[in-house]
Task: inverse folding
């Protein structure tokens, strides 16, 4: 949700440009501040940022994005499985990447392609198995299971168009990293060969759509070794999200993940269903994380005006929450997991706004929710990992340090 | 002193509700901010918080409350002695704790009981000695000295009424922890037997007072291994406090501790005597820590209105200090060691206000001293351990890091 001022919106941020009565209501009745997901100036991925917002020391516990996205999409992987987050993408005849998301290919088509790739046989070593599965749109999970593997390998995804996919390289001198890089390079080569000639891609070409003719991988990782929230704070914690990565982080934190009908992780998600599910879940949970992915999608697409519309829908969610929860016993905190600039299309290192309303907060003088107004609030500037202790303290779930 | 807004005070904090001309004067002529004793949202005990305010990294150096309280009360213990902070408390005939402070028993009566308990013989092992001593009201020190002891033992004090005292358990697998737990359990059993039949408790029963018929222990610890302030900053540092814990932390930091007549660590303490002693002491000290305990007492008792009165007396202390020190050569900093909520009666993780006045501070626009107004000040949000370097630098006592 957080952004920088953009020319297209008269140098307002999308948040500032949005009609946002409920966000402003939370700011007005709450305590506000700005929050660095990791540290000032450091652009955070959604994985480390969400880990931080759940109170974990991301710098220490982060073990790659792939495994988080995999468990979030319901893929059954085990601790130790080396898992990548991959995209179906489009390369031209010279091998240059021309669309990193294969035109945001539809779920059903991505599933057909993934099923084909899963049929490929890995020749050697014989004690390694792979799993390839599509999740949402172009996003896929690719995981290796075997006795001698390592997450210390580089990405094939260069992160931008106009370049060729990179060879996966071992990042240390271990035999495990070398083996893993070799297996992944071989498989990605086989995937490309299979996709190039896949009937579905011929169809897409006819329809004028970018072919999903390559798999770009990044974020080799394993399930992080973290204590469940229930154990740290003695709470029942639930997640309402559609984005597999966020669901994965929440699962890794031991949270219950609610599946909401119509929640898709896209701008077309059913916003009010998520709000309704959250209110319902609050009856049996101490803490509910409600996540909307769509603001990030429009940012990566450099579409500030659509982002404004999404923020207005998020405001609708908050209106529903404020209307259907008891203000005398409920705390509501609103923040973003990172700044994404609609000008650069990238995650940026600017802090994000944070507002917390509820019975015992020290209300401040902020009356609007935005990147700039929240910076004047009573929380001042905190770190991502400070938020969870702050919230848990408000609901009486932190332990005293010292006596 | 710091608190959250409370309904009883029209959603002001006690600090905001108090008439506080001198506190406001300090804010107005100074630089202000908010301070997290340890980190945002983490409720701090007075021990770790005071260590932090003296500039120590509490998370690293903290070694339990018991030993700090003991040396603060003038009890002679040595490095290595395993020392608990204990309360005289009241259990009913079913063994349930009904008053964790035995009606805040008077000093003289607590002393009589402690003297009786000190007569009990520890049968085995023969090379361990114990010491039992009352300090203020229900508070006592209980210390073990011997060659094979450990601080890795749990508390007998469950921290609330309506439960039975807990058995002390070893917190690791060492023979030392097991032995220590066994000795303490045996002694606490003997203490209970002696207190139940103590003539003083029969008297208290007749007077309708809760019997001090059990000893509840917590915070096994040793004297922390920290560098004296004199060595870190080349200063003469003095403490004016009555609360044994604060005196203990100051002693551990190598500070001189001044005994002030009439300073009791209770709401009935002689506020102006402490102010006078501080002014006197400043003639020969570079740094004086003046501590008032009473605000915390009224918070734990959930009495916001009495807390307002105490804050007004603290304001009187500051008025005296401002009047009797030279503003051209004196810095005055006012803060709290933690937030205590008069609503929950607990230490809470909210930050505390901080104001520093003196000749060379960068004055800001804050004109009132409170949790909320200070948050708008020029110090922004700092950590407890940042305060001492800030103050020492203002008086020219910090060393440059780097060249």
Result:
């Amino acid at each position: 949700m957080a952004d920088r001022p953009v020319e297209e919106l008269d140098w307002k941020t999308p948040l500032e440009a949005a009609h946002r009565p409920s966000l402003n209501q939370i700011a007005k009745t709450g305590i506000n501040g700005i929050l660095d997901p990791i540290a000032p100036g450091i652009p955070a991925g959604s994985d480390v940022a969400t880990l931080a917002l759940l109170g974990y020391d991301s710098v220490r516990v982060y073990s790659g994005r792939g495994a988080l996205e995999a468990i979030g999409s319901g893929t059954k992987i085990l601790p130790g499985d080396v898992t990548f987050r991959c995209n179906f993408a489009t390369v031209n005849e010279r091998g240059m990447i021309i669309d990193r998301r294969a035109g945001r290919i539809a779920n059903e088509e991505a599933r057909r392609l993934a099923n084909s790739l899963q049929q490929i046989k890995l020749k050697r070593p014989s004690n390694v198995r792979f799993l390839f599965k599509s999740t949402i749109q172009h996003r896929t999970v690719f995981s290796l299971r075997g006795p001698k593997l390592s997450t210390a390998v580089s990405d094939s995804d260069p992160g931008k168009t106009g370049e060729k996919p990179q060879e996966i390289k071992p990042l240390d001198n271990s035999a495990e990293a070398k083996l893993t890089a070799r297996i992944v390079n071989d498989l990605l080569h086989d995937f490309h060969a299979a996709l190039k000639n896949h009937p579905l891609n011929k169809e897409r070409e006819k329809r004028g759509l970018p072919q999903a003719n390559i798999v770009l991988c990044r974020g080799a990782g394993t399930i992080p070794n973290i204590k469940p929230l229930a154990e740290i704070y003695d709470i029942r914690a639930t997640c309402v999200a559609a984005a597999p990565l966020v669901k994965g982080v929440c699962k890794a934190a031991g949270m219950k993940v609610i599946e909401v009908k119509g929640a898709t992780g896209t701008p077309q998600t059913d916003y009010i269903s998520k709000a309704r599910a959250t209110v319902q879940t609050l009856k049996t949970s101490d803490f509910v994380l409600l996540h909307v992915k769509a603001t990030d999608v429009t940012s990566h697409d450099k579409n500030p005006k659509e982002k404004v519309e999404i923020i207005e829908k998020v405001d609708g969610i908050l209106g529903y929450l404020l209307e259907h929860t008891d203000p005398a016993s409920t705390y509501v905190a609103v923040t973003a997991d990172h700044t994404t600039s609609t000008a650069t299309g990238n995650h940026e290192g600017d802090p994000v706004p944070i507002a917390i309303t509820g019975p015992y907060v020290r209300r401040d003088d902020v009356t609007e929710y935005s990147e700039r107004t929240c910076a004047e609030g009573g929380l001042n500037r905190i770190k991502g990992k400070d938020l969870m202790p702050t919230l848990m303290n408000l609901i009486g779930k932190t332990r005293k340090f010292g006596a």
